[in-house]
């Protein structure tokens, strides 16, 4: 091979090497651009949102929002997937496991979810329902002491009504346990509680609507209305929580859901009779049975609907969870609240911003 040919060959090798380097740098640059685009895309509307709620009157805004397509209308191209639950702890597991994005849920499981994830995985993004929880018992029970030796039902260990009952029992110096000198607290699905009450196997339950009204319809009397235990009778029965990652990545979707909820609340307020029918039909679709007009009217009259989560009540609710034994220690709720989207929706609806009670994360 001639020197000239050798020189040309070496030059070709160098040139090819340089081209390879340029190509690699270009690829890296494109990868960086792609990464930047993906990062920017994290704040775009979600392709799908998975929403959980209960087939209860206390979740009427969720039931109305789904059945009347208020959520779907506001979500636009985002697919809405729904799942129903009987009680909060199961719904919390679904959220923490990633099979749900947003949930209508009781206040106590909301706190427990925040505590369980060490303040990382869950944010409280809105309110829904206040009131609508009562301790209803057989008519012969007219005082706390008469509960000794009796079995009282709650929907699930650690759920909102379970915490409320256990806290109330402790405040009234009533031991929780078995035997004639204690109150047996049994966690039972709501439909089963009604059956057992009719069979005289449980003496009553601390239950959300419509189940407290269903037991009243079956002969129970109200021993404690939870409204009587709170200032102005207001306490959050149902709130909305969401996975923190979902809130941060898809604020537009969160805002759309909250707009849909506001439409549902407005519908329930301005079209009361129709709202009751829609809610009842939705419950029947899930549970297979509808409520009688008497039960339906009583249940709705016990409730009020508002997107304000009543943040100022949550420190007390956190203490109640400890008293009831649902959590080992009081939860530091700093950072629990994210109501940026909620206040945007409320402002557009002509409603005041909610009181954060100092529970928002530091900016």
From TrEMBL:
Q: Which Pfam families match?
A: NMT1_2
Which InterPro entries did the record assign? ABC_SsuA_sub-bd, NrtA/CpmA_ABC-bd_dom
Listed SUPFAM superfamilies: Periplasmic binding protein-like II
Which controlled-vocabulary keywords does the entry list? Cell inner membrane, Cell membrane, Membrane, Signal, Transport
Asked if the keyword Cell membrane belongs to this entry, the reply reads yes
Q: Assign the protein's first listed, main location to one coarse class.
A: membrane
List cellular component terms (GO).
periplasmic space; plasma membrane
Q: Under the GO molecular function aspect, what terms does this record hold?
A: ATPase-coupled transmembrane transporter activity
The entry's localization annotation reads: Cell inner membrane; Periplasm
Signal peptide coordinates: 1-31
Q: Which family does it belong to?
A: Belongs to the bacterial solute-binding protein SsuA/TauA family.
Give the NCBIfam families listed for this entry: SsuA_fam
Provide the protein name.
NitT/TauT family transport system substrate-binding protein
Q: Which organism is it from?
A: Pseudonocardia endophytica
